[in-house]
Write a structure and sequence with these properties.
Number of strands: 12
Strand content: 25-35%
Order of helices and strands: EHHEEEHEHEEHHEEEHEHE
Shape: globular
Low-confidence stretches: none
Mean pLDDT: 95
Largest sheet: 12 strands, mixed
Number of helices: 8
Helix content: 25-40%
Distance between the termini: 25 Å
Length: 286
């Protein structure tokens, strides 16, 4: 048996977060965990839609040496969507993690990478079936990352100061939201400070001083950089700005040592810029 540990606080960035982030950084390049990169954890924890009341349900599974070998995670505001992330494919561990989810959620949805053969078989044996799948796309960063821009646009320079309001606005409008971004609560504004870390590479396409496209890439050692998010405001789409900000962000990650990049998406845009399917993630339901 493995020990199970939950933190009963609703704090975002505490010791639990630090341990999970370290675990994910060590295992980000493992094929069956590639759909939950540490950058996804950071994006989730800083997101205004995070359901903080769910944080105490995150569970760490430790072996006899107190080393974390598994984490049960949820995702932002999806209350019944659970992820089983692990560094060892021990059937006893995975069964214990599934049983933990069933204890806290009577109708859980469990996400599992289809390359995670032991976990997928266990779920099938417990009468879980795949409802749908989503793709993890990848790009080898030896790919040609050159791009062009219309003359009136430029790309933000390394270490250039970032206008935080314009940054929030380009993401808000780039995801087709109307009006202005919501006013953040004090707690959410504090959490968003995590997005300022250097390991989150932020690239903007700029026109007349305004941010009109954005790509964020998370990288801190290892092989894999994680793309999250990419957005272009509606009136500036189909001008090559999305490709430009993604390629520029990936170049800077490659310069720091990244060998490949991933994104969780099935959008044609990513295939068109040279990404290919790496794995699929199934949504398992009873």
């Amino acid at each position: 048996m493995y020990s199970v540990e939950c933190d009963q606080t609703q704090e975002r960035f505490n010791n639990r977060y630090k341990e999970i982030q370290k675990f994910l950084r060590l295992n980000a390049d493992c094929g069956y965990n590639e759909h939950f990169h540490w950058g996804r954890l950071d994006w989730m924890m800083a997101h205004p839609c995070l359901d903080v009341e769910m944080l105490p349900k995150i569970a760490l599974f430790r072996d006899r040496n107190t080393t974390i070998v598994g984490v049960v995670m949820f995702d932002t505001c999806y209350q019944n969507r659970w992820y089983i992330l692990h560094s060892v494919s021990d059937e006893k561990l995975l069964r214990q993690m599934i049983e933990y989810i069933i204890e806290i959620d009577d109708k859980p949805t469990i996400k599992a990478n289809l390359n995670d053969f032991v976990l997928c078989k266990l779920l099938a044996d417990m009468n879980y079936k795949i409802q749908n799948t989503e793709s993890v796309l990848t790009m080898d960063l030896s790919h040609d990352l050159s791009y062009g821009l219309p003359v009136e646009f430029s790309v933000s320079k390394p270490n250039a100061p970032i206008d935080e309001w314009k940054w929030r606005l380009v993401i808000h409008r780039g995801f087709d939201n109307d009006g202005m971004p919501q006013i953040l609560s004090e707690e959410t504004a504090e959490a968003e400070k995590q997005l300022r870390i250097n390991e989150y590479i932020k690239i903007f396409a700029i026109k007349d001083g305004d941010y009109v496209a954005h790509c964020g890439v998370w990288y801190h050692g290892g092989e894999t950089a994680y793309i999250e998010p990419v957005a272009t405001v509606p009136e500036y789409r189909r001008k090559g700005l999305g490709r430009a900000v993604v390629y520029e962000a990936l170049k800077r990650a490659e310069n720091q040592g990244a060998k490949r990049a991933i994104v969780i998406s099935g959008q044609d845009f990513y295939y068109n810029i040279g990404m290919k399917k790496s794995s699929e993630v199934g949504t398992f339901v009873k």
